[in-house]
Amino acid sequence: MALSYDGSAYNGWQQQHSPSMPSVQDALERALSKVADQPITVQCAGRTDSGVHAAHQVVHFDSPVPRPEAAWVMGVNSALPDDIAVHWACPVDQDFNARFSATARRYRYVFFSAPTRPAINRQAVTWIPEALDAAVMQEAAQALLGEQDFSAFRAAGCQSRTPMRNVHHAQVIQRGAFTVLDIQANAFLHHMVRNIAGSLRKVGNAQESPRWIADLLAGRDRCAAAATAAPNGLYLVDVIYPAGFHLPQTGLGPDFLAPWLDA
Fold first, then answer.
1. Which of 146, 141, 110, 99 is nearest to 240 (CA)?
2. Any idea what the Cα angle at residue 22 is, between residues 235 and 34, rounded to 5°?
3. What domains, with CATH codes, occur in the chain?
């Protein structure tokens, strides 16, 4: 199943077992269980943090009862809050796993530059008062490519056994007031994209040179890098699986930027 959500009202993806800390997983499992008329639990491709959005999250679950694919989409959507939406559902082989079968994940981080804060879409972007130079950010981002140690962009509480990750592409795209970091890797460390975005911002506003990102990677010191960027601007936009699973294809997001991002 693929879904999108606005993470503003949620304490992240993962179930918190507390009414005061709602999660996307809680809401989805309640809706699925209503359609199945039995408890359903899910596993996702990538756990997003509090306030982070997804344009394309993938989950898998085992159903004890048969239901048509339309019921898993339309029926579940009718039981979900307005800020979560299922896009497709399909049967998969028993060896499919939303998390472990994925070969890559893709995120986009959206900065919005303006002298004053926005009222509309205020939770959909990260507002900054200064303009950014996307060209120097793009130059700096090329140091991120390939398999290397990302300790400089790893959260202190990250539970991964290794800081090694393989970044497939990192592009910085600008259109008007929007500056977007588009990055894909085999996997990401906790807060890795937001930490990279925070440091690229300092390159884009001329506080640091493009060479700084390479220096941070070489130094492997999280304290030397910039502060973690806000969650508002971060989107999980794609999860890549081997073609043999025959999963449906969907467009990238976020929707309000997709027409020019994917042109």
1. 99
2. 100
3. 2-100 (3.30.70.580), 104-237 (3.30.70.660)
pLDDT number for residue 140: 98
From 110, 109, 112, 254, select the one nearest 176 (Cα to Cα).
112
Q: Which amino acid is at 253?
A: G
Q: How remote is the C-alpha of 228 from its chain's centroid?
A: 15
What would the two tokens of residue 76 be?
Answer: 């579940």
pLDDT in tens, 52-101: 999 999 999 999 899 999 999 999 999 999 999 999 999 999 999 999 99
User: Residue 208: which of 140, 146, 257 has the closest Cα?
Assistant: 140
Least confident span in 119-123, 149-153, 193-197: 119-123
Residue 32: strand, helix, or coil:
helix
Q: From the candidates 6, 49, 182, 238, which is the catalytic residue?
A: 49
Q: Is the pTM of this model over 0.85?
A: yes
Q: Is 238 noted as a catalytic residue in this protein?
A: no
Are the CB atoms for 181 and 200 separated by under 8 Å? yes
